[in-house]
Specification:
The chain is built from six helices and twelve strands. By secondary structure, it is α+β, with helices and mostly antiparallel strands. A hairpin with a 5-residue loop joins strand 11 and strand 12. The radius of gyration is 17 Å and the shape is globular.
Amino acid sequence: MSATRERRELIEATEDGLALMRLVGNHFFDWRIAGSVRRRVATVGDVEHVIVPGPAFIARLDALVEAHAAEGLFVACATADSIRLRRAIYPDGRTRWGLRYRGLVFRGFRHELFMATMDNVGALLAIRTGPAHYSRELVTKLRDRGVHRMEDGHVVDARTRKIVSVTTEEQFFALCGVEWIEPSRRGA
């Protein structure tokens, strides 16, 4: 669900995602745009990001949001256009501003940031690329195989309860017993 406008063209959503990445700077180890942008859907409501943050990432993001609030929520970025950056308010009237998941509004649209680790970036990328029904099916297939399950965003060995490193989306699909499918072929 978008924050202020309903939907926008894929190219605009992609540009917004990349602009947000540039704004944060190099305070991350890995950053992937996921969701409907990654699936190449013609119009996009929100932009999902899967990020392996660096040590200063959370502090940098907090500082940016606070600076925008202190400056009337407007800041000129390097391309000379004005942007607005703030915490997103969801339909329940609350924000999502934790260490693993954050919702913000950037350029009038919601962006959802999912913090990953090197051990779960492949699983989160697959799940956050979606669409939702496809992601649920993957997680169900993983669980039904009886060897692994999802726990706090990580794939865990069901017997030993140890985290299984899943650094690529292809690894996650294999653990689910499913052949990897190009994001654009996963549906709307």
